[in-house]
Amino acid sequence: MDVLSANSRDDRTGSAGAAIARPSSFPLYNEEAVLPDFHRRLTAVLDAIDADAEIIYVNDGSRDGTMALLTRAARRDARVAVIELSRNFGKEVAMSAGLDARERRRGRRHRRAICRIRRSSSPR
């Protein structure tokens, strides 16, 4: 199945005929070079399937321009939420942060915001 093609339509629909809302989270680390194309392709698919979706990007301590691109995307697209981790914690922690945010937001509409998660690097 080509997930980046508008031709791969999901048959599950809500009562109004639109695709079921599915919040999706994506961990990112130094993705400045590919993020604009990825976001453009992802939103094109969501638009084509009429999905009421939310995109949760988790910036896992990127040192390039990833966060600036995410901030711009969140300002332009109401479906985008951004979590910024204070440093690189690794993909497992970033995925967990995205899944936790997804669970908290499921079924509820929240104001679009950019969240910052700060964790101490000192051991407990």
Helices and strands in order:
Elements: E1 23-28, H1 35-48, E2 54-60, H2 66-76, E3 80-85, H3 91-105, E4 114-117
Parallel strand pairs: 1-2, 2-3, 3-4
List keywords for this structure.
single chain, 124 residues, alpha/beta, Spore Coat Polysaccharide Biosynthesis Protein SpsA, Chain A, four-stranded parallel sheet, 3 helices, globular, disordered N terminus, disordered C terminus
Describe the protein's architecture and organization:
The model is unreliable at 1-16, 109-113 and 118-124 (pLDDT under 50). It is built from three helices and four strands; from the N terminus they run E-H-E-H-E-H-E. The protein has one domain: Spore Coat Polysaccharide Biosynthesis Protein SpsA, Chain A (Alpha-Beta Complex), CATH 3.90.550.10. The protein has helices spanning 35-48, 66-76, 91-105; strands at residues 23-28, 54-60, 80-85, 114-117. The protein is an alpha/beta fold. It has a four-stranded parallel β-sheet with strand order 1-2-3-4, with helices on both faces. The chain starts with 22 loop residues before the first strand and ends in a 7-residue tail after the last strand.
Largest sheet: 4 strands, parallel
Radius of gyration, CA atoms, in whole angstroms: 15 Å
Task: Give me the CATH superfamily.
Answer: Spore Coat Polysaccharide Biosynthesis Protein SpsA, Chain A
Mean of pLDDT:
79
Helix share bin: 25-40%
Low-confidence parts: 1-16, 109-113, 118-124
Number of strands: 4
Number of helices: 3
Tell me the structural class. alpha/beta
CATH class: Alpha Beta
| N-to-C span | 45 Å
What is the quaternary state of this protein? single chain
Give the CATH topology: Spore Coat Polysaccharide Biosynthesis Protein SpsA, Chain A
Overall body shape = globular
What sequence of helices (H) and strands (E) makes up the elements? EHEHEHE
Level-2 CATH architecture: Alpha-Beta Complex
**How many domain modules?**
1
